[in-house]
Amino acid sequence: MDRPVRVLLDVNIYVGNIMAHDRGHKGTATQALVSMVGGQQWGIANRAQLIISFEMIDTLETVLRRLGYSEDRIKAYSGSIVDIARYGPDALDPYLILGGEERFAMSDVEDAGVLATAVGAKADILVTDNLKDFTTKDASTVETQVVDTTSSGQRPLQALRYETGSANLIVAHPFDVMQWIRLGYDFTPGTLWDAIQRPGKDLGL
Fold it and tell me: Phi and psi of 171, rounded to 5°?
């Protein structure tokens, strides 16, 4: 890709990152993703521009308070995320990203707002551990892999694609995204979609 990859990390990715750190984990998918966007990198060769909205920051802070984090740490963490977006290669101020969640027929208003932010900011990839709630009749889907989880055993994953207006967005689980990065896939949404529908063909390498 000849421009920065526009990446939206869902709130659950930020929560997973801070919890993994506190539990002494290293190298989890959520940690790797937050670290990459923090360094404005996407894999080896690409730059990353983080996308986030004020509403998402507010939701993150609310979740962290509920989990018992101190106010100082919450503000430091959310502030660092805002700075990553604001000082990224495209210099996107999260407070200027508008909503538009009414366009999406989703049961969860917060998830609809996240999707609207991704579409409005022309994100290439939305990474979430909450794929089920992002699946609507407007999304194309493809099965990706089956993973083993400690909490629920085997879990099938899928990727979603939204093509609406000028937006072209892939929604995927962090496990899939990390695999595609390791494979060196091009994250231009159309190219990536072709690659994940025909794994093993090394498309986008």
Answer: -115, 125
Task: Tell me the helices (H) and strands (E) count for the chain, helix number first.
Answer: 8, 7
pLDDT tens-place string over residues 52-88: 999 999 999 999 999 999 999 999 999 999 999 999 9
DSSP letter at 129 equals S
| Continuous segment of H or E residues that includes residue 157 | strand 153-164
- Are 194 and 180 in contact, with CB atoms under 8 Å apart? no
Among candidates 201, 179, 199, 197, which has minimal Cα distance to 189? 197
* CATH of the domain spanning 5-197, picked from 3.40.50.1010, 3.40.50.300, 3.40.50.1100, 2.60.40.420: 3.40.50.1010
Supply the pTM of this predicted model.
0.90
d(Cα 19, Cα 16) in Å, to the nearest integer?
5
